[in-house]
Design brief:
CATH class of the largest domain in chain B: Alpha Beta
Number of strands of chain B: 18
Number of domains of chain B: 2
Helix content of chain B: 25-40%
Radius of gyration of chain A: 35 Å
CATH class of one domain in chain A: Alpha Beta
Helix content of chain A: 25-40%
Oligomer: heterodimer
Radius of gyration of chain B: 23 Å
Largest interface: A-B, 70 and 58 residues
Shape of chain B: globular
Distance between the termini of chain B: 32 Å
Number of strands of chain A: 41
Strand content of chain B: 15-25%
CATH topology of one domain in chain A: TIM Barrel
Strand content of chain A: 15-25%
Number of helices of chain A: 28
């Protein structure tokens, strides 16, 4: 019976939709497809054009024409007073897709792909997946979409790094007609998804995998079928002609994805996260168009002041600024479309778009983001997004301007098929009524959410309702409510209707004893009585400009100021140059244009500065009692890295680059500036013998990842030995990856370097062969297929060519010795041994090999291989003429590396000036940047710290820290920022407390930022 | 310098040579009973109670301090050995509370880990008998001036009882200063992430209430247990808890947030527990009045730490002692956390940093000595340089709170002179020799 009913409904429903031509028919054919003509409409043909009293007609699934005479044979629909818009397009969805299933969890790690067939090696790459094939019409969800004004949705299987092709589907009722395009887009992301394969498990690993895949696909294509069929690469290649949509999880990802795109000449469309305003200019510079959600956070529950203390300033500010995000983007002329993806409740979509309009986004821009921009992004703007003849008949009919708060979508037409969304405008029933019957008078308050409370007249106090349980139901135009009264048993049941447009409700009711009565409830016009609602200050009018609320980075201690390189002379300070002139007791130092202009006993300003001397303001600082040192350089740091410090999933991951995941928004940058650090090497972790490539940054707090990077610094790569690489402390399940012993570690190196040598010769041979091609051959178009570019071997080849340097995590002498033998036999030098806690046992051998040391001052006893670590290590190595640095490997310790240097004085008696070099000049030497930083000498970068005390003393703290002559930290500025934070916190918490009452709130609960160490293994990619 | 002193030096040297030769240095031999009275003169003497003597002198005999004062007033002829340490500093031996020294040697080697027992309610667990006097780590801590520690069991909720020991003994019996000074409760977290949604919102943790209720249940039972009819009915847990209720021992509540601490204080009031201390107390600056009113002291968690919240003042961990000091809350330094055993040797430098961030020098010394001794209940004999107290003290060539100048040249526990060497010094000498050839 049900199925018959269903069939009937189906047929009835599809009267206006058109059956597929190839399909058999059950029953008589509706042979006539009527023309519908809509008259008297306020027709928004596109975001910038409105036609009043417009007439347009549709036939089948197309718009026929606009502003024509009414065809007498058509069904005429009068839309007087109503608005018509092109229906909306949502480009980010998993609508109609099967749910991504987690694979069964096995105990051990999974190193190989479990996908069977002629596919590539990594399970997270699925370019062959076709959403069009997977798509199943979903009646319920389609209805939800349509209710928000959508007519078309781009859907894809939301899992993995390459997710395959997206399908553009219409939201009509006939699933056989809904697939508009099965190859509409290709989808990528930085998230591994459900794949349990070990590689990749970091953001940089994902980036490397994507990069290598582009190269592999290109190479595979060039091989013209000589290679075994690889369905993954073939599908990858085939998908390249489509719009490429890249899902990001934070605004920095947009910059990251764009860098990949730039390498391969691809402009991705970025699926954003609503936080793009935090790096507007940089996102604009990528030239990307965006797909953005409207998922503004709810205010936090700030009723518990202790818990409120856990809310970060950026969380507070994001709550305030998220609704401005579309405004900001539009203002910067960044093209974007809206998606309903990411909303907890999809039916909030329109409400939130309207909120964006209230927060400054123009209606025109909002409409663009809903219609023509997504159509353009999909390269479908000749068919979708506007109401024009020949376009798909996708439009919505509303009772008012769609951006009006109370506007209602009446109908949503999808490919010429009509769907009723709301029969009539929602009756604004909520409000207070005087309910009377049988000479009794109550005040009832009907609430928006379908709840009601009853208050006795003249005892009107929201907190003192009669304590009755009220149920309230509304099925327009009918209202029902039941309640019981205090001191009375039984339930009153009232039914009625609103037939006078929400002003008067009337009907019949039953007393608890069943007796009937008639009742009437008259709406009370809200007055500023006791019922006064708390009014929020109007958000936009309060502020001069929302731009004033932005700080960079968008984190605690972010800055709003622009920094200039200062011309500054410091007089009478103790200057620790860490260079050839040693320590000057009452010296002078001059910085200008971001460089050191002079340092010495006395500086003649006019001689050095020339014209500048007169033209520019010079800051002269009396440095009496102060100490000036070069900025501290941390050779081994793991701050400012997003989503994983260890790829570590394979014995070698030389292809991954920390530079791909630098996180400029890490507050530890600022904290370390406050400790005098100006340059940090961000190293890959130590989970595998051959780790990833390092990034060298200057701590230019507030700048973007690319601007943090140290210009023209040579490349480094992390190696590691010992317990971490043989997974000694990873638990009992990790016992299959090669190597599991120090014996195996040695062979990993030999194997990889032999392969790198072969790789080099293969390329040499190729280059030679190519250079021998005669002009004739070239003219004929003869080419020689190039070898495959292998990013892992490229990096290793660079080591062999001394174009990339090694920093090797190491503890015990025998393995250090082993690695030096490997390097010697392969013809390269190990630049730095980091940690190197047993370095003191073979300082002579290190010296002979030419390796430097970057160590901890006093760490030991945390694992077996550090049982012989001694705090005298640094001193002993230094005495043997090794370049010694002390590093942090720890976000906390990096705040006081000068104190760690002081321990070289304590343990082993290194002279003070030499000890200071452990954290300044020596790491600069190890990093091959000592021509630019590390000491205070003419021409070097103006990276320096002014201290209140002897810099090695525990009582020393930086008064200010400069990079490139710009003051990135000073105690005075820090005090200002603290005050700003306190004010902003208080201001926004007050707003939240008010708004939370009316809008509902969420519990606080930030994710504490990750602090990475060498051995931090995480998987933050799901 | 007299003969004895030289002799001692010679033995010291011999030990180093022997240990260097074997490659595996023995832990130093415990000191011998003080036989001669000793007087140090012309030092800056840091008493430990917030005061000091410039050009001061400290004399001790038979293991007890017999003089503390100025050099000018001391009667030198009363002492068999008078040592001029001009420009140097004398401090009471530093105390490391909430320590797991001697309970764990190598963090990643399970066989060497003895600081934690299974089970949630372990008030009967005692750290003392697991304290290894032969630890190679302890001797590296001693050389930086730390001579006393409160050896503390870790745990998931009620961890057990700590004991106070010094670092000069053949075995734990020798090392003992105060047995079972208190029960350690690791106050449970109150919130957990709500994993039902995508958000990271916190929700009240179900286990929290359960845990606190179970503790109260035990305390109620312990009350009854004290008056049980048959003395032969022994319940180890209730026995341990009843000591707490009788105020014979301290209650140490390891807690970080203001809410946790507030909840713990309400438990203290409910059961009339006299001596309760907070260990950690990251947010204690938010509730200084509450702490003071309830006479609850704070062992300030590792000072060299990052601020918990991004927006916190950068120096919040550094200035916490100063805030507590100014508010009149009793406090001391402790250093639990990552690599806490080996890191104990940096405890004096926490004091240095606290000074850099506003704390007065002698108050910082008190946070390493007398404050701590008072909090763990050993101040009648230890914690300050006072006539009649134990001669447990250190002499540092420079300021011992500054890593650049900390250089402990002599140390005494109950008047016994310590061999200031360790396995690391042994390795240092050994390899120094390698390169001198």
């Amino acid at each position: 019976m049900r199925s018959i009913l269903f069939c009937f409904l189906f047929l009835a429903n599809s009267l206006s939709s058109i059956p597929q031509e190839t399909f058999p028919l059950n029953g008589a054919e509706n042979s006539v497809s009527p023309i519908y003509t809509f008259i008297n409409a306020t027709l928004h043909t596109d975001p910038s054009n409105v036609m009043e009293n417009a007439t347009f007609s549709i036939h089948k699934d197309r718009i026929q024409n606009i502003e024509s005479a009414v065809n007498p044979g058509s069904v005429v629909i009068d839309l007087k007073g109503k608005h018509v818009y092109p229906s909306f397009i949502d480009l980010y969805s998993a609508y109609g897709m099967p749910t991504a299933q987690s694979k069964e969890r096995s105990n051990g790690p999974q190193y190989e792909s479990l996908k069977h067939g002629a596919f590539g090696w990594n399970e997270a790459l699925n370019p062959e997946r076709n959403a069009g094939v997977l798509f199943k019409h979903d009646t319920k969800k389609a209805k939800v979409y349509r209710a928000q004004g959508f007519g078309t949705v781009l859907t894809h299987y939301n899992d993995g790094i390459h997710r395959g092709l997206g399908a553009l589907v219409a939201l009509g009722s006939n699933e056989n007609r809904n697939l508009v395009s099965k190859e509409a887009s290709a989808h990528l992301s930085f998230r591994k998804g459900k794949s349990r394969q070990s590689y990749p498990n970091s953001l940089m690993g994902v980036t490397a995998l994507i990069r290598q895949s582009y190269l592999d696909a290109e190479w595979y294509e060039g091989r013209n079928g000589l290679e075994p069929t690889d369905l993954t690469l073939e599908a990858w290649l085939a998908s390249q002609s489509l719009p490429q949509i890249f899902e990001t999880t934070e605004m920095l990802d947009i910059l990251r994805a764009d860098r990949i795109g730039d390498e391969f000449h691809i402009q991705y469309i970025m699926k954003g996260n609503g936080d793009e305003y935090q790096r507007l200019d940089e996102i604009k510079a990528t030239g990307s168009s965006l797909i953005i959600p409207v998922n503004y956070p709810k205010p936090f529950d700030v009723s518990d002041s202790f818990l409120t203390n856990t809310i970060e300033i950026d969380e507070l500010k994001h709550w305030e600024l998220a609704p401005y995000n579309p405004y900001f983007l539009a203002d910067k002329e960044i093209s974007f479309s809206f998606t309903s993806h990411g909303l907890k409740d999809q039916s909030d979509f329109l409400t939130n778009v309207r909120k964006a309009v209230r927060y400054g986004l123009s209606e025109e821009k909002a409409l663009e983001a809903l219609t023509i921009t997504p159509a353009r992004q999909l390269e479908m703007s000749d068919e979708l997004g506007v109401i024009a003849s020949g376009f798909s008949a996708n439009f919505i009919i509303t009772d008012k301007n769609i951006f009006h708060e109370k506007s209602v979508i009446l109908e949503n037409w999808v490919q010429g098929e009509k769907f009723n969304v709301n029969n009539s405008p929602e009756l604004a029933l909520e409000g207070d009524y005087n309910l009377s019957y049988d000479n009794k008078l109550y005040r009832i308050r009907l609430k928006k959410d379908g709840k009601a409370i009853i208050l006795k007249e003249r005892e009107i106090d929201a907190h003192d309702s009669l304590g009755m349980k009220v149920t309230f139901k509304q099925t327009k135009p009918f209202v029902n409510f039941n309640y019981s009264l205090k001191n009375e048993e039984g339930i009153y049941r009232l039914s009625g209707s609103d037939i006078r447009n929400g002003k008067i409700l009337e009907g019949r009711g039953n007393y608890p004893d069943g007796k009937e009565f008639e009742w009437i409830a008259v709406k009370q016009i809200a007055t500023a009585s006791i019922l006064k609602k708390i009014e929020l200050p109007k958000d936009s009018s309060e502020l001069a400009s929302p731009y004033d609320l932005l700080i960079y980075p968008f984190k605690a201690y972010g800055r709003a100021d622009t920094l200039e390189a200062e011309t500054i002379l410091i007089k009478d300070a103790t200057i620790w140059t860490c260079g050839s002139i040693g320590k000057l007791d009452r010296g002078q130092i001059l910085f200008t244009d971001g460089k050191i202009a002079a340092v010495g006993k006395e500086i003649k300003l006019e001689e050095i500065l020339g014209k500048k001397w007169e033209e520019e303001p010079i800051k002269i600082l009396d440095g009496f009692g102060m100490h000036v040192t070069p900025g501290i350089i941390d050779e081994h740091s793991h701050i400012a890295i997003s989503r994983g410090v260890n790829e570590g999933s394979q014995a070698s991951t030389a292809e991954v680059r920390i530079g791909d995941s630098v996180n400029s928004e890490d507050v530890n940058i600022y904290r370390q500036l406050a400790g005098g650090v100006t340059t940090s090497q961000l190293l890959h972790g130590s989970a595998n013998p051959i780790g990833g490539q390092s990034a060298l940054i200057k701590l230019r707090w507030g700048e973007t990842p690319e601007n943090l990077k140290f210009k023209d610094a040579p490349g480094f790569i992390k190696f590691a030995l010992g317990e971490n690489v043989k997974q000694s402390n990873w638990g009992d399940n990790y016992n299959v990856r090669f190597p599991q012993s120090r014996m195996g570690v040695e062979q990993v190196y030999y194997d990889h370097f032999h392969r790198a040598k072969e790789y080099k010769s293969k390329w040499l041979a190729y280059e030679l062969e190519r250079s021998l091609l005669t002009k004739k051959q070239l003219k004929r178009g003869e080419v020689i297929g190039s070898p495959r570019i292998d990013l892992e071997l490229e990096a290793l080849a660079e080591i062999l060519d001394s174009e990339r340097f090694v920093t090797c995590h190491s503890y015990m002498q025998h393995e250090i010795n082993m690695l030096m033998h490997v390097a010697d036999s392969m013809g390269f030098t190990l630049n730095t041994f980091t940690h190197i806690l047993e370095g003191y046992k073979l300082a002579d051998k290190m010296k002979a090999h030419g390796a430097g040391a970057s160590s901890f001052s006093d760490w030991w006893a945390y694992k077996y291989e550090v049982k012989d670590a001694i705090p005298f290590n640094g001193a002993l190595l230094w005495e043997q003429g090794i370049t010694v640095a002390y590093n942090s490997d720890d976000a906390e310790m990096a705040r006081r590396l000068n104190h760690e240097a002081a321990k070289a004085v304590k343990y082993g008696g290194v002279p003070e000036e030499e000890a200071l070099k452990f954290v300044t000049l020596n790491p600069a030497k190890l990093l091959h940047i000592d021509d630019k930083v590390g000491s205070l000498a003419f021409g070097k970068d103006a990276d320096f710290v002014i201290w209140n005390n002897h810099p090695l003393s525990v009582y020393a703290k930086p008064l200010s820290t400069y990079i490139d002559g710009k003051c990135y930290f000073s105690l005075e500025k820090d005090i200002e920022r603290r005050a700003y934070i306190a004010e902003e916190r208080n201001r926004i918490i007050q707003l939240m407390a008010l708004e939370g009452i009316s809008e509902g709130s969420q519990m606080p609960g930030k994710k504490r930022s990750q602090h990475y160490h060498c051995n931090t293994i995480t998987n933050e990619l799901h | 310098m007299n003969y004895t002193k030289n002799m001692r030096g010679l033995i010291f040297l011999l030990v180093i040579i022997v240990s260097a030769a074997s490659g595996y240095g023995q832990t130093p031999t415990p000191g011998e009973k003080q036989e001669k009275s000793i007087l140090y003169i012309n030092a800056t003497v840091h008493i430990g109670d917030g005061t000091k003597f410039i050009e001061g002198a400290v004399g001790f005999d038979n293991g007890l301090i017999s003089y503390v004062g100025t050099t000018t007033k001391v009667r030198r002829n009363l002492y068999e050995e008078v040592i001029d340490v001009e420009g140097m500093h004398i401090y009471p031996g530093f105390i490391a509370p909430n320590s797991t020294l001697g309970l764990q040697e190598i963090g990643s080697v399970r066989a060497t880990r003895d600081q934690r027992e299974v089970g949630d309610i372990n008030p009967h667990i005692r750290s003392l008998t697991a304290f290894q006097t032969e630890s190679d780590i302890t001797t590296t801590v001693r050389t930086n001036g730390i001579l006393i520690a409160q050896i503390t069991p870790r745990g998931s909720f009620v961890g057990g009882q700590s004991s106070v020991v010094h670092f000069d003994g053949w075995n734990w019996e020798d090392a003992l200063i105060r047995e079972s000074d208190g029960v350690h409760v690791y106050w449970p977290r109150m919130y957990e992430r709500d994993h039902t949604g995508k958000s990271l919102s916190l929700k009240e943790r179900g286990l929290y209430k359960k845990r606190v209720e179970s503790l109260e249940e035990y305390l109620d039972q312990a009350k009854a247990y004290q008056n049980r009819a048959n003395e032969e009915d022994v319940d180890l847990r209730l026995q341990a808890f009843s000591k707490l209720l009788k105020n014979e021992v301290n209650l140490y509540v390891h807690a970080q947030t203001a809410k946790q601490m507030t909840a713990a204080i309400s438990l203290k009031r409910k059961y009339n527990i006299e001596k309760m201390l907070i260990v950690g107390g990251r947010e204690s600056h938010l509730i200084t009045n509450l702490l003071k009113e309830n006479n609850v002291g704070v062992m300030v968690g590792r000072l060299h730490d990052l601020p918990w919240n991004d927006y916190d003042d950068l120096d919040l961990p550094y200035k916490l002692p100063k805030i507590l000091q100014d508010a009149g809350v009793k406090w001391c330094f402790e250093n639990a956390g990552d690599m806490e055993q080996m890191n104990s040797r940096n405890l004096p430098f926490y004091a240095g940093t606290a000074i850099a961030y506003g704390l007065e020098y002698e108050q910082a010394v008190a946070g390493l000595t007398l404050n701590t001794a008072e909090m763990i209940g050993v101040s009648t004999k230890y914690g300050s340089l006072q006539v009649g107290k134990s001669a447990t003290l250190i002499i540092s060539k420079g300021d011992a709170l500054d890593m650049m100048t900390n250089n402990i040249i002599s140390a005494f526990i109950d008047g016994r002179s310590l061999e200031l060497t360790n396995r690391q010094i042994g390795l240092y000498k050994k390899f120094k020799k390698k390169y001198s050839n």
